[in-house]
């Protein structure tokens, strides 16, 4: 991870790919990934996963793939500087229970860049197999701001959310402590400076350090654990406003047919940090 971070920080890649860039596919593989009970417990602690929640937390395998993601970001074929990218959307499919004692096979794949009215979107696919069967899959969409503004009337794609009562089925107050960025970084290996201190976040245009989007997702899934089906599920998440460190936020869960809707919003409830849908497959 350390050499990869050095190459990211010192690399000469642009923040947005030049017009006409041709994307060359990249696939990386780790043939044997073994789970660590101690590492899993650290993740459960930092995301406050309840002891009653069975199996692996749904977003945990994203954390294990971080070293391979970093290797992908620094290959020559990857066109932009990763520190300029914003995590826009995420889809996770939990396809089968994972045997924590058996090794996994991990693949990370990149082959997609989309030009949008706002900038460029990049998709990364992460997948795990166990005993030859696909057990977990993720598509992360990252965003690079364009050099010009959006076209008139253009809108970002959004997760459709039905009208819910303000109270929700379950509501939690989430404490985003001073050390949240550092704790999650030590578990995930993602030491992006915007998540660590106010001073390093200000270098990238943020007034304070901001919580990692995947921590926010993991924390909201932990809050909603009693309402999430314990079977094959798909989790669609759209990241909205940053969550500043330190702060408080509300996690709201609504039980719906086939799953749950989840949101993370400000304490006043007037602005959204993320919107999530969990559905059985």
Automatic annotation (TrEMBL):
Name of the protein in question: MaoC-like domain-containing protein
All residue ranges annotated as the MaoC-like domain in the record: 169-257
Residue segments, region Disordered: 146-170
Bias type Basic and acidic residues, positions: 152-170
A Pfam family this chain is assigned to: MaoC_dehydratas
């Amino acid at each position: 991870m350390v050499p990869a971070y050095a190459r990211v920080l010192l690399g000469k890649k642009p923040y947005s790919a030049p017009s006409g860039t041709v994307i060359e596919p990249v696939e990386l593989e780790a043939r044997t990934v073994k789970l660590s009970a101690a590492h899993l417990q650290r993740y459960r602690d930092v995301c406050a996963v309840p002891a009653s929640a069975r199996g692996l937390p749904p977003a945990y395998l994203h954390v294990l793939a971080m070293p391979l993601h970093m290797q992908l970001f620094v290959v020559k074929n990857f066109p932009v500087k990763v520190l300029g990218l914003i995590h826009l959307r995420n889809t996770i499919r939990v396809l089968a229970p994972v045997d924590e004692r058996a090794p996994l096979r991990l693949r990370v794949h990149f082959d997609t860049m989309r030009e949008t009215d706002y900038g460029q979107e990049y998709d990364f696919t992460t997948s795990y197999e166990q005993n030859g069967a696909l057990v977990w899959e993720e598509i992360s969409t990252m965003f690079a701001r364009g050099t010009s503004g959006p076209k008139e009337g253009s809108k970002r794609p959004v997760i459709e959310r039905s009208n819910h009562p303000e109270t929700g089925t379950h509501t939690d107050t989430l404490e985003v402590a001073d050390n949240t960025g550092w704790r999650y970084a030590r578990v995930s290996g993602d030491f992006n400076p915007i998540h660590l201190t106010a001073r390093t976040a200000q270098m990238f245009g943020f007034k304070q350090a901001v919580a990692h989007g995947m921590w926010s997702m993991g924390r909201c899934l932990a809050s909603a654990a009693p309402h999430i089906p314990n079977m094959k599920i798909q989790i669609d998440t759209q990241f909205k406003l940053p969550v500043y460190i330190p702060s408080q936020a509300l996690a709201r869960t609504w039980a719906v047919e086939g799953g749950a809707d989840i949101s993370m919003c400000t304490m006043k409830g007037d602005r959204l940090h993320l919107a999530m849908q969990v559905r059985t497959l």
